């Protein structure tokens, strides 16, 4: 196995942690990055970098010094997210990183309905603009974990998704794809942008049926208009930009922008992606808030 060092951001999160585990198991030197090293997981053979936030160029450069490849998990949504990504990319290049594998989003584009997907497009363009920097973009769909998370305690999934379909994917499958791409040293994935989806596209009404089966109670989908969606989320006290992101994610589903099913998981990772039914069976804690009500 190559001695090339892979730096993994978001290593305390659901994807970064899984990717780090897979790389560590493969014997790859791994560098874990995070704002708080105390929150980083214990991965055999991995080194915890000094504290580094995406927006702190100096800290990011120090944390990435000596790394060859960077797995860049997108930052938490914020009005400054693209600027933070650009700072992180610049720091990586300055530190000598030669390849970036960036976790993007399906349908990333300047005019994407889902407002946060626009951030991913701008980030991708910034990475592309660095001459000589190898890159791969992994454009994931909604997370399967989001289906139980968006189900309210009253057993209702609300949103303006209409009858649109979404090809949601499991964190495990994304991590499997990312690990294979990061482990490849022959350039076969350089310059590629892969949609990473589940193996099926379902409506939220169909998702509610699966949730009903898993929880033993009636879960239903309540289609909302755009205005109703903003009104039903007003009580969260979220800023307008965040509400725009929440609501527009459902609108993207309604417009068919997240319905395309890719073969990336099977082709790259070598196995079929997890279905919603299989995911719910494997992760009962995700819908524990709905059981027994």
Automatic annotation (TrEMBL):
Transmembrane segments: none annotated. The keyword Protein biosynthesis does not apply. SUPFAM superfamilies: NAD(P)-binding Rossmann-fold domains. Residues 10-182 form the NAD(P)-binding domain. InterPro entries: Ergot_Alk_Oxidoreductase, NAD(P)-bd_dom, NAD(P)-bd_dom_sf. Its EC number is 1.6.5.2. It is an enzyme of class 1 (oxidoreductase). GO terms for molecular function: NAD(P)H dehydrogenase (quinone) activity. It comes from the Bacteria. Keywords: Oxidoreductase. Signal peptide: none annotated. Pfam families: NAD_binding_10. The keyword Oxidoreductase applies. This is Quinone oxidoreductase 2.
């Amino acid at each position: 196995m190559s001695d090339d060092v892979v730096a993994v951001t978001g290593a305390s999160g659901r994807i970064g942690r899984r990717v780090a585990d897979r790389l560590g198991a493969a014997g790859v030197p791994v560098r874990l990055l995070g704002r708080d090293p105390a929150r980083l997981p214990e991965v055999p053979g991995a080194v915890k970098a000094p504290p580094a936030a995406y927006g702190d160029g100096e800290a990011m450069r120090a944390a990435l010094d000596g790394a060859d490849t960077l797995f860049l998990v997108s930052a938490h949504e914020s009005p400054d997210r693209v600027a933070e990504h650009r700072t992180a990319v610049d720091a990586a290049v300055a530190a000598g990183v030669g390849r970036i594998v960036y976790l993007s989003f399906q349908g990333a584009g300047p005019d994407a309905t889902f407002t946060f997907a626009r951030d991913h497009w701008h980030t991708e363009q910034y990475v592309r603009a660095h001459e000589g920097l190898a890159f791969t973009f992994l454009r994931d769909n909604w997370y399967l974990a989001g289906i139980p998370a968006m189900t309210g305690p009253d057993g209702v999934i609300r949103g303006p998704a209409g009858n649109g379909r979404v090809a949601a994917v499991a964190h495990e499958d994304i991590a499997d794809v990312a690990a294979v791409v990061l482990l490849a040293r022959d350039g076969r994935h350089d310059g590629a942008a892969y949609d990473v989806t589940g193996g099926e596209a379902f409506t939220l009404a169909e998702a509610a049926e699966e949730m009903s089966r898993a929880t033993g109670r009636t879960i239903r989908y309540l289609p909302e208009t755009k205005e109703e969606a903003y009104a039903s989320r007003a009580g969260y006290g979220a800023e307008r930009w965040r509400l725009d992101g929440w609501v527009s994610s459902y609108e993207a589903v309604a417009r068919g922008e997240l319905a395309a099913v890719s073969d990336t998981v099977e082709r790259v990772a070598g196995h079929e992606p997890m279905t919603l039914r299989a995911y719910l069976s494997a992760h009962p804690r995700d819908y524990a808030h709905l059981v027994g009500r």
